[in-house]
């Protein structure tokens, strides 16, 4: 058996490396799969040793995929999750497709935000694709520290359910934030605070997935105030559109209104296309310089066009930030929302929380188990979570 510099049995070293990486991965559960594979590839004991047998690598990858795909909560032991597994306590949000409810899992007493969408309305508005995109964006980002995590998705004959992390610290209104991942529709309402004051990005309803760094697409995505010039002009756009969007949100956080804002939408669009952003001096030089870079109308000269996220990370505006600590949630949040516990709903709009919770959320449970697959018709592959429900690899 070959011997390494360290003087120990090669196989043992490799196994130890594998176990260490695996343990760290299981412990953290917050790394994306790509990051994980990259880290794996950079771990000398594992991948740079040609003698690691192919089957061992295969087995290992299989294990990793299985862990990555399996839900992270203890609900995992359930064979099939269904609407009646939850008590629906309050409505915390409402939109055209359905509602978001604070719910408690009966068995574990854990709190979740359950988003319930009406299939009929989605079909009528031809939004199936967006809903499926939302689901897969949520699934991909299941481990990111600053993205709302999807624990389960399931469906009944007439409704779709997303079981999400519950956060009740309210919306972000102040302070600089940065995109946590790609493709979310970044706007202040979608940046929430958890009870410790860490940000959580949510709502992936109308997003384009999976743009490669050089890829372009021309599908509409976004809120009017934050639309980039190339999107308004229906030109092809790429990832740099996110940096524009970030610039717009950051501008609003620093100055109180979106850049180029006008009540008259036509005028606002004209401003977006042709006017320079107004940068009053009550924001630091670094801040104004950052906004100027992000709000470049020409996407090729926009900050982030060359080196993507790295360009921002190294900008002087962020020089006080230790990014590793930030990702590990070791930085003390500048604002800690006051919440007394999970059922403290003071940061939600009373317009929602005062609404009565419909009993029908759990009424057609008898139909659930048998009908999941036929009803899947319009939303095939929507259900996610219970390991038995996975068509695994
Ligand atoms: C993306 O573009 C850069 C330069 O613009 C180039 O160096 C790189 O190879 C491209 N990557 C891909 C995947 O095409
Ligand atoms: C800058 O001034 C505007 C009013 O002109 C105010 O709304 C905004 O909060 C100020 N921003 C900062 C960072 O002080």
Automatic annotation (TrEMBL):
Give the keywords, sorted.
ATP-binding, Kinase, Nucleotide-binding, Phosphoprotein, Serine/threonine-protein kinase, Transferase
SMART domains documented for this protein:
S_TK_X (SM00133), S_TKc (SM00220)
Please list the residue ranges annotated as the Protein kinase domain: 86-318
Q: Where does ATP bind?
A: 124
**Where does the AGC-kinase C-terminal domain lie?**
319-393
PROSITE patterns on file: AGC_KINASE_CTER, PROTEIN_KINASE_ATP, PROTEIN_KINASE_DOM
Q: Which InterPro entries match?
A: AGC-kinase_C, Kinase-like_dom_sf, Pkinase_C, Prot_kinase_dom, Protein_kinase_ATP_BS
> Which GO-annotated molecular functions does the record name?
ATP binding; protein serine/threonine kinase activity
Q: Name one Pfam family in it.
A: Pkinase_C
Q: Which Gene3D superfamilies match?
A: Phosphorylase Kinase, domain 1, Transferase(Phosphotransferase) domain 1
Task: Answer whether the UniProt record assigns the keyword Phosphoprotein to this protein.
Answer: yes
Q: Which PANTHER family match?
A: RIBOSOMAL PROTEIN S6 KINASE
The name this protein goes by in its record: Uncharacterized protein
């Amino acid at each position: 058996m070959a011997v390494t510099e360290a003087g120990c049995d090669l196989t043992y070293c490799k196994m130890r490396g594998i176990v260490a990486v695996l343990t760290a991965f299981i412990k953290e559960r917050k790394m994306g799969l790509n990051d994980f594979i990259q880290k794996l590839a950079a771990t000398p004991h594992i991948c740079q040793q040609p003698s690691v047998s192919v089957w061992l690598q295969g087995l290992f990858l299989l294990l990793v995929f299985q862990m990555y795909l399996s839900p992270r909560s203890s609900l995992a032991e359930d064979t099939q999750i269904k609407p009646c597994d939850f008590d629906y306590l309050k409505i915390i949000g409402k939109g055209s497709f359905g509602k978001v409810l604070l719910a408690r899992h009966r068995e574990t007493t854990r709190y979740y935000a359950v988003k319930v969408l009406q299939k009929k309305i989605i079909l009528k508005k031809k939004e199936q694709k967006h809903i499926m995109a939302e689901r897969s964006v949520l699934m991909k980002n299941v481990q990111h520290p600053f993205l709302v995590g999807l624990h389960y998705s399931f469906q009944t004959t007439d409704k779709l359910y997303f079981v999400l992390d519950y956060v009740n610290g309210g919306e972000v209104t102040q302070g600089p934030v940065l995109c946590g991942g790609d493709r979310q529709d970044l706007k202040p309402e979608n940046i929430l605070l958890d009870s410790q004051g860490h940000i959580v990005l949510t709502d992936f309803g109308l997003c384009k997935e999976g743009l490669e760094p050089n890829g372009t697409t021309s599908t509409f995505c976004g809120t009017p105030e934050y639309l980039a010039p190339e999107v308004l002009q229906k030109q092809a756009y790429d990832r740099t559109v996110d940096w524009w969007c970030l610039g717009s949100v950051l501008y609003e956080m620093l100055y109180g209104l979106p850049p180029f804002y006008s009540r008259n939408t036509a005028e606002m669009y004209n401003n977006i296309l042709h006017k320079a952003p107004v940068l009053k001096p009550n924001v630091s030089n670094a801040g104004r310089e950052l906004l100027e870079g992000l709000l470049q109308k020409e996407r090729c000269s926009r900050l982030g066009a060359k080196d993507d996220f790295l360009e921002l990370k190294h900008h002087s505006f962020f020089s006080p930030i230790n990014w590793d600590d930030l990702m590990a949630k070791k930085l003390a949040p500048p604002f800690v929302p006051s919440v007394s516990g999970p059922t403290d709903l003071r940061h939600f709009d009373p317009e929602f929380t005062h609404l009565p919770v419909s009993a029908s959320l759990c009424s057609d449970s008898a139909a659930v188990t048998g009908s999941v697959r036929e009803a899947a018709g319009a939303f095939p592959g929507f259900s996610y979570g219970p390991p038995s429900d996975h068509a695994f690899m």
